[in-house]
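Researcher: Structure for this, please.
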Amino acid sequence: MELNAMDYFGDELNEPVSPTGQCLDNTSLCLYILAFLEFQVPIHNLPIVSLVEDAFLSIPHFTSIMVDDERGVKRWKRVEVKLEEHITEPKFTDNGIPVDSYDKHFADYISKMAMENLPQTKPLWQVHVIKYATSNAAGTLVFKFHHAIGDGYNLMGVILSSLQRADHPSLPLSFPSLKSSKPKNISRFILEKMPQFLSMPFTFVSDFGWTLLKSTLVEDDKTPIKSGVEAVEFRPFKLSNVTFSMDHIKEIKSNLGVTINDAITGIIFYGIRLYMQNIDYKSRALNSTALVIANTRHIKDYQRVQDMLKTTKGSWGNHITYYHVSVPKLQDIPISNPVQFINKAHTSIKRQKNSFAPPLITKLLRMKNKLEGPEALAKHIHGTMRKSSLLISNVAGPIEQMAWANHPIGGFFFTLSGIPQSLVITVMSYMGMLRVTTATEEGFIDEQKLMRYLNSAFEIIRHESIAKENTP
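Model: Predicted structure, token format:
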């Protein structure tokens, strides 16, 4: 339902919705972020109304709706928030059934809830209070945020600003450092960068051209992870998780001389290819591409919500971009050499990060929005997603255990809905563990088998990295 500013005659309209925000809320593309807090104790006594009020109602985007002004420009309009309309407590069935039955009720509820559009007449967020115990938690809070409100950095920051350390509530949460721990040797740095600098024009033209082709003309093959059906974003999906030790990931990183992001991406790619080969042997040689979401901020750590909101040019909003990374083929890399999946991921990601292509693509998208409008940009981004095989997004979580109102939180993860792909993978660290979450098209991808292959890929690559390190 489109709302007009005249529906709120006499009330002042606030700042315009950002171009990206408008793009993420229209008929072609409507994206949501779902964040999950898994509690270790029952949450029957959790004062959810007061907690949500304290966490959200001081933030303008959580007390506003999008309306059109007299020129048709979407703007944020402050409205009265009725918390009872944003907090939902589902009723599954009577108590006394096995936990695995609640797991199914939970999965079905999340799939249905994730696909429902939020009403435009209310601020675009919900909190779902699931008091039933599942195999992962004694109780779960699920936050549903419209992506137009902000990106993962903003929305995770809002949640994290409301939580406390379980061991010392007065101390701030800490996060994994994203900065390099090794000081750079200037001479060595110049020597290492010289070949890259000399090849930069060719690399730029190659990467830029490939990205344009992947966004417009070239579509990935249909494979066991890409059904290619129309409107796949409206089909039911299954959420699954596999968890790895951060210490083991760091061990792989150190042994192979790559980054943590390279290590986990290589593991995911290897596990995916093993799954694809098991389902259809021919798919080992078919083209598959991951669309990797990246944060364009120069900020290294989370900010307090108050700091995010200080200026309109601050860190609030959708400061994200994307780049394509090819999933290596098993015909190119022998199955007996899985470490090459890490090396390939390292080379591809490093090349994209050092290329001018992603920033230029971002500028072109802004120009397209300015000349053709949010609907045209949304169609372009939708097509870019649909032509690739999967999406990968990652967020760094706290090192320490969190609690909300003295209720300890054992698990913390997120996913995305509205993505026109059969497979969406999100990665989040928390309490020394790395959680990989998959949202898979129901009835097309065997999510349990995929989880087994991801776990197997991790074990194989870890073993191979240790052997490589110990080889004289």
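Researcher: Any notable elements?
Model: The domain at 5-165 is CATH 3.30.559.10 (Chloramphenicol Acetyltransferase). The mean pLDDT is 84.
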